[in-house]
What does this fold into?
Amino acid sequence: MTHSHYEDLLAQQLTMNRQTWTALQGHGVTEETELRLDFCYRAPNRKAAEALNNFLFQETDYDIRIESDGSVLRQEWRLEGSTQVTKISPEILDQWVTWMVTAGKELACDFDGWGTTV
It folds into this structure.
């Protein structure tokens, strides 16, 4: 993947943060609300997924699991996880997403987004 691929990915995720924050506010979420954020990465292979898993395990307190689609011909790997309960704001979300995209970039994995349950 090229450097611009990750720049585009980050720009897309930051744009989606705005939309998601607006939707969350519509459900009564404020900067004082504590939420658990669920996230997903796409990995090119198991080795990359495991490397990202190890990195996130060392750097965070996230609950993380590696998933595979099970296909023998074109196996795709995902790393899925959840943060601990935390307060969020648009600024915090932008900082977090930037860090998550960068962490994935270092290990050739694409941050595929986040969500939460209100």
Observations:
- The chain has one domain: 3-116.
